[in-house]
Amino acid sequence: MTNKAIADYAMVSDRHSAALVARDGSVDWLCLPRFDSPSVFAALLDEQAGHWSIRPAGGPGDYRVSRRYVGVTMVLETTFETASGTLVVTDAMLTGDSLDVHRLGADAPHVLARVVSCPRGTVDAAIRYRPRPSYGMIAPLLSAVRGGVRARGGPQQLVLSSPVDLHISGQEARAVIPMSEGMTLRFALHGARVGDPVPLVWSDGEIAGRFAATAVAWQNWSDAHQRYHGPYRDLVSHSGRVLQALTYQPTGAVVAAPTTSLPEEPGGSRNWDYRYSWVRDASFTLNALWVAACPDEADDFLAFMTTAAATYVPERALQIVVGIRAGWDLTEHEMPHLRGWRGSSPVRVGNDAWRQAQVDVYGELLDAVHRLSGQIREFEPEARAFLTALADAAVCQWREPDHGIWEVRGEPRHFLHSKLMCWVAVDRAIAMAARLRAAHHVQEWTAAREEIREAILTEGWSDVAGAFTQAFGSSALDASALMMPIVGFLPAGDPRMLATIEAIASRLTDRNGLVYRYRADDGLEGEEGAFLLCTFWLAHALAMAGRVEEAHDVFRRAVTYVNDVGLMSEEVCPHTGELLGNFPQAFSHIGLVNAAWAIAEAESSGVLSPPC
Fold first, then answer.
1. What percent of the chain has pLDDT over 70?
2. How far apart are CA 518 and CA 468, in angstroms?
3. Under 8 Å CB-to-CB from 197, ≥6 apart: which residues?
4. Which 3 state secondary structure label does DSSP give 118?
5. How many helices (H) and strands (E) does the chain have?
6. For residue 288, what are the CA distances in angstroms to 139, 193, 294?
7. Are the CB atoms for 74 and 13 separated by under 8 Å?
């Protein structure tokens, strides 16, 4: 069982997959070649499930650690200070040699590279390489090859390029390397499927060149895309890079997080696999990137969603989560051999949310397309038909109960947020009707928009709660009601909206002032932490209501839970302040970006120039 804090991890990504590197220099999570591939290292979920560590020899008390991302890249630098010298480990997943700033990672070789240097004194570097493919189920055969170590076993073959000889004992390889000032060692881990050509051992010069090219590629991408100059600029820009790193380059799919089964409660069972592309999360991400990174992937995203939906018809619920290569079947199963982070079990692979109906996704998708429509010269016929069908689906289905934005695993209900986003769907479709060549739908869409609006205003308000609530006929608060002004349904200064903001701020927060999603029973065992996205929503709504100083206060409260390299998980434990949930979490970084933009707009009296 692992005891490392979730906040102790940093992420590197090639936009095909990601690795999590702990503060102690151990790669404890890596899936190759894709985000949703079986893991090569999974010590994040069980100490016996594989890792690759590089750190000073001795115990944790023998060194001090600091780390950072290098410049405006996703290249990670970890510095270990010892009594005798300094050891620096620099990690990157290589993005390839392409210089095209619009195709970052397109020719990624699926390689994790690690550069070890000694800029001061002398340090013994301890290396331990312990691959355990297929979520730790396979202990591969390791054999020395010229310039490295080969691992065979199961469906995957691995080659570790190493400039030093590693001692193989059983199913792991080790070495302790005396490092002196000015020395640099470079390592690279390559993966391939059985039956494909065996990965080649790379020379030191080849690793050095490709590593440098990766740093340049991220730098060039940031220079070309990141133009936000409002408050919290560094946090916003970094979140933009994180969201880009969570995007699967070949399709434009966005994963909710690169991990599975990091829990909402330590030792609990609310553990889900987030390595897939939710329509909602991907749409939110594209909206956030409009602020943080001026995305040029709007066409790719729309093409991916059109392909994933296939022959979609309005009478059928749109599948709300798909694989990053547009696969539909994400059947969930448990991995009982993994003990889970701090004993949080079960560990799950797959996500049965794919079976749920969630009608809010029509609005989120159409809202993202509307925001980015200026970057799409002309909608392809398939895209026009798909987007028109989404608006028609909102008209057909808005009266139906569903599982809602929070994917409640109980009985479907009439969630207010779902109705709200159906209103958004038809509202944005009306705005784009000419470009969709759907003028003949506008009358029906307009009538539905007014009907949905009336239902929300009458049935979504609770006199008992003095606020808009989670579901029609309920008095339970839900943070998703904060989306009402954000999407333009009601002005934030409307008395009912101000009452809702006040109710959530005073009755749906923990002792640290962070916002819960809801406190009503959701049919699952256990508790959950406060939700960072919802806290950013509160800051966003306050800014829109003109209460800018309060918005700043809430925003600053939330960002105190950003870790030392600018990453956030989904939730925060209300008792300990620890980060909880899959990591890093796209939702949280999306909320940060959008709240900062709302504050910037409020401070400029709405005349701030769009970043894209």
1. 95
2. 13
3. none
4. strand
5. 15, 26
6. 41, 35, 9
7. yes
Q: Which of 257, 337, 342, 253 is nearest to 302 (CA)?
A: 253
Picking from 512, 308, 278, 317, the residue whose alpha carbon sits closest to that of residue 398 is 317
Q: 278: which 2 tokens?
A: 């939710």
Distances (CA, A) of 121 to 61, 62, 65, 90, 117: 18, 15, 16, 18, 11
What is residue 128's three-state secondary structure?
A: strand
- 10 Å CB burial of residue 122 (0-12, 13-18, 19+) is middle
For residue 520, count CB atoms less than 10 angstroms from its CB and return exposed for 0-12, middle for 13-18, buried for 19 or more: middle
The token duo for 244 is 């880009």
Distances (CA, A) of 19 to 22, 51, 91, 110: 10, 11, 9, 11
484 close to 499: Cβ distance less than 8 angstroms: no
Torsion of CA 351, 352, 356, 361, to 10 degrees: 10
Can you tell me the distance from the alpha carbon of 145 to that of 14, in angstroms, rounded to the nearest whole number? 26
Cβ atoms of residues 344 and 267 within 8 Å: yes
pLDDT digits (tens, 9 = 90+) for 234-261: 999 999 999 999 999 998 888 999 999 9
The helix, strand and coil proportions of the chain, stated in percent and rounded to the nearest 5, come to: 35, 25, 40
For residue 98, give the amino acid letter. S
Among 483, 435, 468, 498, residue whose Cα is nearest residue 302: 435
- Run of H or E including 461: strand 461-462
Token digits of residue 542 = 């306050």
- Which pTM value belongs to this model? 0.94
For residue 29, the cross-strand partners are 20
Alpha-carbon span 8 to 307, nearest angstrom:
38
pLDDT interval class at 471 (50, 70, 90): very high
606: confidence class by pLDDT, cuts 50, 70, 90: low
Q: How far apart, in whole angstroms, are the C-alpha atoms of residue 7 and residue 419?
A: 36
Tell me how far apart the alpha carbons of residues 39 and 44 are, in angstroms, rounded to a whole number. 11
Q: Please name the residue that has the structure tokens 């307009």.
A: 446
Helices (H), 174-316: 204-225, 233-245, 279-292, 298-309
Rounded to a whole number of angstroms, the distance between the first and last alpha carbons of the chain is: 46
Decide: 206 and 190 in contact? Cβ < 8 Å.
no
pLDDT in tens, 422-452: 999 999 999 999 999 999 999 999 999 999 9
